[in-house]
Amino acid sequence: MNFIKDTATPWLLSLGCLWSGAAFAQVMTTNAYRDTSIAYIEQDPSKYNFAYPICADILTTTTYSPSNDGLYFKASYGHRYLSSRSTKTDNHGGFDYWSTITCDSVNYNSANKIAILCMCDGYISEVLNGPDSVLEQTSKGRSVQVTCDSLPQALGGNIVINYRHLSSLGSLASLADTMPANTVLIHKGDTIGIMGESGYTANVHLHLSAKAIHPLYGNTYIHTARLFDPTLYPNVLAPLHEAKIELLQNWSDRALFRIIWPYNQTINRFEFSNAAFSAVFDKEAAYDKGASIRDEHDCIAGFKVFAYQFNGKQTALTRYNSEKVNMPAVYPASPQRDTNLSLYHYVHIPIVYDSVAFVYDFLVENLPTGYDKDSFVVRLSDVWGNTVEGRLVALTTATALSNSSKILLYPNPASERTNLEFKDTMTKSVRILNLCGKEIYGTTTNATYMFFDLIELPTGIYFVQVVSERKNELLKLIKR
């Protein structure tokens, strides 16, 4: 493949290093463990013994290979990318469930809707019902709220569970709609209603949310994962045990991280630290900021969070490719930022992970003067204390600035042409960068061979960056 000269290349080269100090780094995830010292976690995941709200064969199957729209959960708790909004950012207060579910070998979908089951023993404390024309003007739609007999472990009050967007009510909920609140008893496994799309939504799904009294945030929508035991059905909801963490860029007072984790795992707490500072982004704290603030990228002081919600129907790469044209320039992965580097400071960093996964970018701000970027530690924890700890190690000549055993760059040094060979066919992003980290050329490919025409490239040192789902490597390229 030829190196195609970008007409903006001379301008990019002449800009010099905006926000000097930018550097590439390599992430090493050292270990996964459970940290029971984290405040307000669920110490005993099996305590509640709640039922799952939707029957599904994938909960117990040992041969698990559903289509991407059969993954049970459609959306998780916390920030997500919402294409219907102009800003694309939304803070989601619960779990969403797909309508495409198989239960007892019966296929359910938006036409053949599945029943929603009560998760706990308790009393029906609220029913929202009425004509569809009226419910369509509400965010919740037809809904049932159950106040469980169960008390939370680390929080206060009773656990309150909401079931939203129903198409119809079950018999107990219909009775409760005519009775005073908290007078109709309901049991675990009873039918709440039928999945639907009432209210502000265009898709048939269940929105499940939970409230309790948090010692720090008061009566609030807590992380919905607190209701579940992750050891029961790890096919759909497992303890956090794997994640990919990257330091994308760093400057004198801030650093940009990318975090990727599988669709069937959750994260509630993101901790960034080194010897000089420690900062925590907590999803429950972010949601508690209220409707006017919680959706913003900077809802927690010291952070900007950019979520790319890729846990349904499409892989991270496929969804990114379908959305990037309309992605606002503030997103680190948005190609729109490249048109105004004087404002946005660095070129976009594409999403390349061709799997169904969550992707978050965090800009960690207000770092102390002289902080040591090489000693970064990132700790990711779910609501049960399961933690993935990553240590970020700066690239050195001996590590990443050399040819990988699976990537060949030759000849190097080169004056007219250099070749790039890969020993796999994984989808990968390939970029040529100058010493300031500015992109001179970029493409996405699954080829095993490509070449670059270097004739018009000025003499100097460059880097060839190859990013795939499994690795992020830099190769030093010398242009004679």
UniProtKB/TrEMBL annotation:
InterPro entries: Dup_hybrid_motif, Secre_tail. Residues 409-478 form the Secretion system C-terminal sorting domain. The keyword Signal applies. It comes from the Bacteria. The keyword Signal applies. Residues 1-25 form the signal peptide. PROSITE patterns: PROKAR_LIPOPROTEIN (PS51257). Keywords: Signal. Pfam families: Por_Secre_tail. This is T9SS type A sorting domain-containing protein. It comes from Aureispira anguillae.
